[in-house]
């Protein structure tokens, strides 16, 4: 058997390697798809034994050295994806030109052991490709080559072959036309299921399809793609039995359709017909075809006593006679190919497609198909039905398992066989790429490169959304499924529905809430990706799925209302259901990909004559509705290929539901009503709609996205603001000339809630700002009134520039600022430290700090309400001046003008910022406040809205607690250990890292992945907890650092922890972290850490000690201290992190809720001035009992414990810190830009020299920051 397999592999490699000799084909591909790359790429022939390619840069060009054309195409794609972040897909291309080509720093060689990378199902040729033009095929073949497909089914030119065959068999032209199907149905004809339906196909179309295939074959040869062509397996017209005495096996019906018959392969007539078939195939399409398909007795066909083994041998012999050494490709589906069919075949020339790999492992249960070469493949989609699915990790696991397991000698590659391919591009890209990786793929890691190439860049929202989708809709844990779950909005109406199509299902087995959260999170990136079509297509697709999911519960309410005979509720719920169809229709209309008219136009364009155009359109409309035939007793195929397209949703599906709801309504009224006749209604609808659909959008993408997402994304706290006891200047209110006042204020001023704003604010009607591309800029408007105002909204228009350029309204967010209670510094005015058990001893007041997520606000009479405006300037915004308005719809407040100047410079995404931000996170606080079980699904869902904004601020570090209460009870919610320690009965230790791993993986999924800081070997109380098996309870040990008890507790853990971290791939980014501990204790702890594993990194937030500096990787020193210049330079050269921190100790600068807002931004400017790498603060979200009302705490000044509020609410302080970090990045970028311009570098130095701690005593932070920012923006 091994010799047989070796011979098979040798022959096939020779065929494939010799099929395409030059690289002209791939050069043409590059010119068609990435012309900006064409002049900068060259190809070289590799003499490597196994198929591979090597990428390298040479003399300003990208060199692709490859063993053949197909490998070269994969090499091009590898460069496009992993270096240029560009991609092609069936749901949009992202191939915009690059200004500068990325350099391949060192040569990269990628190999594959696969012989075959196969593509397409017979059904794909109709559900997707019925009406492809040459432009469509050029695109398709280029995509195939780039993704490494080296064998592809060609099933669209058989009409000419069969016409010639039947002519030679004495058939009349009419008999031939009656046999051949229309262009939308040839797949099932070739598979032996139907005859004639959708025809007759005009001769002009038969001829044009033949010529198209000839062009396809020539192009495929130039790209190294072998064709898999229909072979002769005995299929003949059902009428042949009336013309021949041969043994013809009647195949009966396929549903309502009369099937072609099977000419017995053992009958002498079989060889004669086969000879004609292969002669005509050779004459039309050439003699170098090496692969033929054909599955006899397909889907219920009868064998009528024929010996399968002998029949299979006869079929193969005919192939071999006319195409020597050709390979018969068979589908591995259910129990096909039957063992009896395989047993007498020459298996050197057989290849089985494991067709349904997403659900089955027939390759394993049948022991490599009884020793037959096979490929692992997946269908994934049926009928080109819409939906999102794909067991991505299963794909990776099963391909690896089949390639490395007991039957690896028979595993020859992979294949994609979707019935429709215009869907789920991630599934096809992943599967075809798997065989170019030697190790098993972790899809959660792989997906990052996919996302970046698909959209051209990455944001934390997009990354986190996709990671959530991997755990929900793309999960491998959803059980058996045939394609994606279906949409009830598209179902043929009934009160009892389980599916839309006869073999589909409505049930969704994944985490619907997690998926919805992912889709809504993905939608938040719209401002950044508005001009990226692949993002827009995915956004529409993801939100379409949200609506499909929610429609199930809405329909359940319809059914409940009907069964309760509640006419009023029935009307309400059916209106809601129909409105969902309208909403989805509007959503789908936003891109041509989802419009019926797009595919109608394609059908018409594929026709060369009016008759062809008309029949094409008719074929399309039948296929996507009732499918075919007019036999009422056989109606199983309706909606098999249903489509969620604009122009279908609001007509076909909505109208069908309206008919049904009218029927039910009549029943509720007690009237005699006839049940709708959908069978005839659907056919009549098709005949009435053979015209171009009216499916143009009526709203903007932003408007429809907001309509779908905002109601779900804006929960209210429900908490009333506390009373402000500060004095009110009533006289100023009396002097107001208007009841409703609006003006621009300053983001650096805390305005009194109960007093009229300062006079100088009132004159400001236009806000003017400056921003870099990619920068987030903030403004503050003020509303004050002498009347009670209800439901006030703030909206910003799109900002319009010159030449049609705009900053979309979706890039601008408005927030009403919520007032919370604050206090003051300690009584000596020098810090914010010390116990505050009696709040009455400290001056308290209300300040505006919370960026509330409520969109409507009530403003009381004689109150002032600040409105915060944030504009995230998209990175692709053209430079120039943009103007728009801030309005307050349906109110008497006057609009305000906005003028934003966008410079030509660009700020990179936060993930690429150098600023080392380390704000400590408290997951325990989130669980308590949101009242969810710790580490539950609900807990992680609540944390996502808290920590994703932190990732978007450029956070680098994950805060992890590896012991119980490392800081005692200094916060409302003490930290517990994320590692469970167990002292076994024998005295040894056992460690459980489950919580630690889940926490770290969660934070990494948000984009916080540079450093894991594990606290603390030296807690405040030096008390260490563990579970003791002997006493069956928790115990604590108190031990001084360095003692035997201390080492017994920590040394085994540190050793095991290092092992675990290395297994996870996290060791290199993990630090053992401590804070504000005496140097002597630090020295002992460091010695123990080094004893456990010399590779450990150590972090410290505390005073500077020269004695231990070299041992500290991440060293954050107290504000006011500095690193010696030579030490700082050495640390930065070694890649160590050197930052500073503030806490309650500093009166200023600080981020208490009463601190001047500008001090938060000042902190980052100070880091730039002192050449620190960044900034650390001990608490990002260690919330007090009710932070949305009162920020005071029993210790520390108000607000010291947190910068971010529950429910995804940022703070003025956090936003000002982010402004400062952006300024830090600007300084860094300008320094690099001006490295050869000493005058400009000196000017930057002068700007930074103002930032000295002592200056804050007499100079407000606002003044310093404003002056410096203007100077930087003027470069």
Walkthrough of the structure:
- The structure is a single chain.
- The protein is built from 40 helices and 42 strands.
- Strands 5-6-7-13-14-15-16-17 form an eight-stranded parallel β-barrel, surrounded by four helices.
- Among the domains are: 4-111, Chitobiase, domain 2 (2-Layer Sandwich), CATH 3.30.379.10; 154-345, TIM Barrel; 551-709, N-acetyl-b-d-glucoasminidase (Four Helix Bundle (Hemerythrin (Met), subunit A)), CATH 1.20.120.670; 730-912, Immunoglobulin-like.
- With 1275 residues, the chain is α/β, with parallel strands linked by helices.
Strand content: 15-25%
CATH class of the domain at 154-345: Alpha Beta
CATH topology of the domain at 154-345: TIM Barrel
- Count of DSSP strands: 42
Multimerization state? single chain
Q: What is the SS-derived class?
A: alpha/beta
Write down the Rg.
Answer: 35 Å
**Low-confidence runs:** 1-20
For the biggest β-sheet, the strand order reads 5-6-7-13-14-15-16-17
List the helices and strands and how they pair.
Elements: H1 2-19, H2 24-33, H3 35-38, E1 41-45, E2 52-58, E3 61-66, H4 69-82, E4 108-111, E5 116-119, H5 124-127, H6 134-146, E6 151-153, H7 158-168, H8 173-179, H9 186-190, H10 203-223, E7 226-230, E8 235-236, E9 248-249, E10 253-254, E11 257-258, E12 261-263, H11 268-285, E13 291-293, H12 308-322, E14 327-332, H13 339-342, E15 350-354, H14 362-365, H15 367-371, E16 374-378, H16 392-404, E17 411-416, H17 425-434, H18 443-455, H19 460-470, H20 512-523, H21 526-529, H22 533-563, H23 567-588, H24 596-605, H25 610-623, H26 649-668, H27 678-688, H28 701-713, H29 730-734, E18 740-744, H30 759-762, E19 766-773, E20 776-785, E21 789-792, E22 795-796, E23 799-800, E24 806-807, E25 812-822, E26 845-851, E27 857-859, E28 863-872, E29 880-887, E30 896-906, E31 916-919, H31 923-930, H32 937-952, E32 957-961, E33 980-983, E34 989-992, H33 994-1006, E35 1011-1015, E36 1023-1028, E37 1033-1038, H34 1044-1064, E38 1070-1075, H35 1079-1092, E39 1097-1102, E40 1114-1118, H36 1125-1133, E41 1137-1142, H37 1158-1169, E42 1174-1177, H38 1212-1233, ...
Parallel strand pairs: 1-3, 5-6, 5-17, 6-7, 7-13, 13-14, 14-15, 15-16, 16-17, 19-30, 31-42, 32-35, 33-36, 35-38, 38-39, 39-40, 40-41, 41-42
Antiparallel strand pairs: 2-3, 2-4, 8-12, 9-12, 10-11, 18-20, 20-28, 21-27, 22-29, 23-24, 25-26, 25-28, 29-30, 33-34, 36-37
Helix pairs in contact: 2-4, 2-10, 6-10, 7-11, 11-12, 16-17, 18-19, 19-20, 20-22, 22-23, 23-26, 24-25, 31-32, 34-35, 37-38, 37-40
